[in-house]
Amino acid sequence: MSDDWLTVSAIAILAACIVTIDHEAIGHGSACLAFGGHIKLLTSVYFDCAGSRASVAAFGPIGNLAGATLAWLALKLLPAAHPRLRLLLLLVMAMGFFWEAGYMLYSTTLGEGDYAIAARAAFGALAWPLRIAIFCAGIALYAVAIRATASAARPFANAGALLRLSWLAASVAAVVATAFYAPDRQAAMIQGALEIGAGSIPLLGRFRGSGPAGVTIGRSIGWVASAAVVYVAFVATLGHGLPWAAIS
């Protein structure tokens, strides 16, 4: 029996929205306000905080790592009788960890982004020994996340195909959402493709499921409808971009 492509895609889109909110809104946004700053811009790929510390940059990654860790812990406790919820938690865990692993490699290679900003705020410069250390941490996080993803995906009958479809749906959803950022659609779409698509490329790997004895994802109108509502709200807010005046 095969997985229902529509329900799987809906769950993947929900996961992409959650990890983006973890990074941009919960991570960067809450830290900005907690440190007395004012949010100037909040989108699915851009964040700008005025009147606060540069260390706010570190809290985007912290938000994603915390969200992914909580999803991993929830997977340990959730009974196997809830395959759709288990898939959502699996994808939040995988995409959250993969996003940050890829971001470590990107940020240290190009000397820009959250990790580079946070390193300069803490140490005054992104020296090469620190770059190498963060780069190696990114590779290590990829290895740990791939192992955790493989373990969590094993109960599914068609794990490899399931995760490949999830990657495709989440990546397309992330890019489409950024297309609504009018000031610079092209740059925003590239960032969206990097964060979810490029970062989570390991989801295209050869993950093994349990075959005929494993569980599959059946059609659920409730999950599809819920994902549609959440995604429309996501596009209208973080996809389009919220100016600081609307949320400060």
What do these coordinates show?
The protein has 248 residues and is mostly helical. The chain has one domain (5-29, 60-240). 69% of the residues lie in helices and 4% in strands. Strands 2-1-3 form a three-stranded antiparallel β-sheet. The longest helix has 30 residues, at 5-34. The relative contact order is 0.19.
Dominant shape: globular
Percent strand equals under 5%
How many domains? The number is 1
Low-confidence stretches: none
Average pLDDT? 93
Distance between the termini: 50 Å
User: Structural class, judged by helices and strands?
Assistant: mainly alpha
Number of helices: 9
SSE order: HEEHHHHHHHEH
Walk across the major sheet and give the strand order.
2-1-3
Largest sheet: 3 strands, antiparallel
Number of E strands: 3
Helical content class = 55-70%
Radius of gyration, CA atoms, in whole angstroms: 18 Å
Characteristics:
three-stranded antiparallel beta sheet, 9 helices, mainly alpha, 248 residues, 3 strands
